[in-house]
Write a structure and sequence with these properties.
Layout (H helix, E strand, L loop, with lengths): L1 H31 L22 H11 L10 H11 L2 E4 L3 H6 L6 E2 L18 E4 L4 H12 L5 E3 L3 H7 L7
Helix pairs in contact: 1-2, 1-5
Pfam family, one: Rhodanese
Protein name: Rhodanese
Organism: Brunnivagina elsteri CCALA 953
Length: 172
């Protein structure tokens, strides 16, 4: 039950962040439009009287845009296959102390809080897979990177716990 609540909180946070992003973008575009035009082209996002997108409309558009699978690799076997065939960058977004206590072999540690400062370490020309201890931080990282135009990023929701529980090798 706690895990479900964490996922719901994460999704709400992502949606609200995206709505804020849309609002900022819309305000920037609106400020660039000449005031000499009395009519503006309608967009798919319904706006309130001040020009801000209505939350419900923005949330609906965002949720409808999420593809099936939510940018995830759902099974340990699927991750192992990807690792064997496509050589993805595997990113452990946990804290350094968590990483040092054990991680998936070949993973690079980039804590979630430092993700934006380490974009130079994240390639855009090959698969990138993020994981953490339970899926919460990696989901935030995946959505963050997608907002930054990385379309090659997926999360591994079974995370380190799923990898460990399946009996796979652990690096230290």
């Amino acid at each position: 039950m706690k895990f479900k609540k964490s996922i719901q909180t994460l999704l709400l946070g992502i949606v609200l962040s995206f709505c804020l992003f849309l609002s900022i973008q819309q305000n920037l575009m609106a400020s660039e439009i000449s005031t000499s035009s009395d009519s503006m082209a309608e967009t798919d996002i319904v706006s309130d009287q001040k020009g801000f997108p209505k939350l419900e409309s923005a949330v609906d558009q965002y949720l409808m845009s999420i593809p099936s699978g939510y940018y995830t690799i759902a099974k340990v076997e699927d991750l192992k296959s990807l690792m064997a065939n496509r050589q993805p960058l595997l990113v452990d977004v946990r804290e350094p102390s968590e990483y040092k206590s054990g991680h998936i072999p070949g993973a690079t540690n980039i804590p979630i809080r430092t993700l934006a400062r380490n974009l130079s370490k994240i390639p855009s020309d090959r698969p990138v897979v993020l994981y953490c201890s339970a899926g919460y931080r990696s989901a935030m990282g995946v959505m963050t990177l997608h907002l930054l135009n990385y379309d090659n990023v997926q999360g591994f929701p079974p995370s380190f716990a799923g990898w460990k529980d399946s009996g796979e090798a652990i690096a230290k």
